[in-house]
Amino acid sequence: MKAVVMAGGEGSRLRPLTIKRPKPMVPIVGKPVMEHILNLLKRHGITEVIVTVQYLASNIEDYFGNGSQFGMRITYSREDVPLGTAGSVKNAEEHLTEPFLVISGDALTDYNLSDIIRFHQEKQALATLTLAHVHNPLEYGVIITNEDGHITQFLEKPSWGEVFSDTINTGIYVLDPRVLTYFEKNKPFDFSQDLFPLLLKKGDPIYGYIASGYWCDVGNLSEYMRANADALQGRVQIEIPGRHIGNSIWCEEGVEIAEDAQLYGPVYLGHDCKIKSGAIIHGPSIIGHYTIVDERAQVDRSIIWNNSYIGERAELRGALVGSSTSIKSKAVMFEGSVIGDNSIVQEGAIIQPNVKIWPDKEIETGAVVNNSIIWGSQGRRGLFGRYGVTGLVNIDLTPEFAASLGAAYGAILPKGSIVAVNRDSSHRTSRMIKRAIVAGLPSAGINVHDINQVPIPVARYYVRNTESVGGIHVRLSPHDPRIVDIKFFDQYGLDINKATERKVENLYFREDFRRVYIDDLGSIEVQENERVLNLYLEGFHKVVDEGLIRQRKFQIVMDYAHGSTTQLLPGIFNRLGVDVIILNTSADESLVTRTKDEVERDLQRLATITAALHTDLGIRIDPAGERIAVVDDRGRILDGMKMLAVMTSLMLRRFHQATVAAPVTAPSALQHIAKRYDGHILHTRVLPQALMATASREGVVLVGDGEGGFIFPEFLPAFDGMMAVAKLLELLAYFEAKLSEVVDDLPSYYLSRTRVACPWEHKGKVMRILSEQYRERRAKPIDGIKIDLGSKEWVLVLPDADRPLFHVVAESESSEQAQALAEKYARVVSGLQQ
């Protein structure tokens, strides 16, 4: 059997290591990772190989040649432009007339390839995918199979809510050559995104083989360090060059070790390296060929490539040093720091944790490097979470970070584009971060429209109805005064999607975002506040039946929560003829953020005033203007789900055969309401992006998140608390109803929620086992795993996207039963982590 080795990878997440070499040439214990793959192929009798190359292809071709010195026959297939994984193999189609193996040249594995090939033959498969269980499946394609190994579903790089398994695609395939007839030559085509879903759709025999053994994608710098450590510690079966001299120390030829040097394995010493007097090396560490570790230097859990120098009393602690680099005396490199090839760190300099330094740089004597060179910041799990980019002020989110983030976002947009930027009413914090972002955007050639301090719905509307291609809103977290949220909008004013988030993250972490020449620098224009507000109000008044509301002559209590909606709502209420008793109108930045207990006290006060004054209702709008909390005319506080049921009832009663979209956490009462009024409920994922995306679906008149957020697509397909207030008044006026009457007419329901802590590395496993155990009872997979237990009884297990925990939501026929059900499945989730 022949093998195709995929070796076109650029390895952008491994920069600066891959700036001067392709990813397959990155060394693992003294040999390029691709050489370990060729050795694995040879051990299983595969000696005829086609290598697909693109990025820095000559590096690979020069090293491996025709393969004769490695006991192989190698043919190369070059791509002039990226064609995707399948497209690159299609280029070599003339060499592939029989079943063949496809394997990545930039991953590390010791899988039994013979067993995989045998499985493929036994199943008479058209394609066999090698699968593995991993702790965090988010960065891989998740595969779901039945008991026979037949693949039933693909999920390409899912979010936590879509993870129904921890079984992922390793990129090792056995394929029948007939699969290459399914697509055209010289056109981009991908195995996991295009070909395999096509085979599944056609019903062709496509199988998954769950391999045992070691596999590592070597996808980023931490995985690279781990792969080397695993090799030294025997966790992966590869050939370690040199001889084993005891104490888990391997030496190649020409190594010199001083008598008083101290080495604590596992350690690999490349040929002709020198370990001088008093030096101390703690493993797992790798010292490359011709490298010198000078007197009394300390190397701890670090990797040093070839021809480098570690000076006297220098210290490396969990660091990575490229080739031909000098770390001079008394210099220190801390955990996670990386320095590229041909660089110099002068005497006494300190490289702080997670700093990356590009090749050909010099760090001056005594310098303390806190940020990456050329530009950069500290490593993070991921930039984006549910609320955008969030972090502690001046710790996670510094002005330097914000400027780089702005530049990274700008770099994915066309030069000369307009991005609207604004902030909330908190003064110092949001303003500092916003100005830093504004400074970063023009460096990427982006023109900034500074729309100052407006509510989020106004900012979204501005982006959607001007020439802006995107927007950024900076706010103090409504939950924690130490935290800032940075929200990014697309050209339609909606939260950017996951694909765009990944583009920004990739550019940010690669730290090579676009810098334009002086003639192309973007401009910064402050927009007149009145113009921005009037643009929103003009559209707002077109979709509200103002005459109907004026006739009703509502009296309400309004809590502005010290937010920026005070710029608009008083004028709106005046135009609608609403008599308003106002609370908390001052723009006090110290009161913008409220704890859960403080919000509950605010609502209790609102309820007391509403009932005492016999007003029609009370409303609290959040400082950002996106969500509302409501009290009815009897002083009852209506939680988010109750308000979702109220709005659903009013909208479906008003609009015949319409559709309301709601998250999978919504109660079954919504279905009963829809049936009553001949309407439809469309369930969605709980993330705001998913809810907003649903708003554009045909027939959808309302989207609610169950947390006080409502979307009215006829105006803006995004959450808007001001529009929610107006529409609630309009609907109550239309039906000449009191809010309490609508509430009393709702079907009863009982929900209970709880949370279960779960380490990140166990979340995928828990989802897989739950999916398998409750396969017969699982509802249609939308978000998390929903288990249908009968009429008005279900449980949803939902992994949190940002935190190491699960949410468990249950509905039953009484509050006690719902609570018991939630607690029962919380215990199930806890047990599956063992």
Automatic annotation (TrEMBL):
One of its GO terms (biological process) is carbohydrate metabolic process. GO terms for molecular function: intramolecular phosphotransferase activity; transferase activity. Residues 383-514, 536-635, 640-748 form the Alpha-D-phosphohexomutase alpha/beta/alpha domain. Pfam families: LbH_EIF2B, NTP_transferase, PGM_PMM_I, PGM_PMM_II, PGM_PMM_III. Keywords: Cytoplasm, Initiation factor, Phosphoprotein, Protein biosynthesis, Transferase. Residues 2-233 form the Nucleotidyl transferase domain. Residues 248-349 form the EIF2B subunit epsilon/gamma LbH domain. It is found in: Cytoplasm, Cytosol. Its main location: cytoplasm. Belongs to the phosphohexose mutase family. This is Nucleotidyltransferase. The lineage of its organism: Bacteria, Bacillati, Chloroflexota, Ktedonobacteria, Thermogemmatisporales.
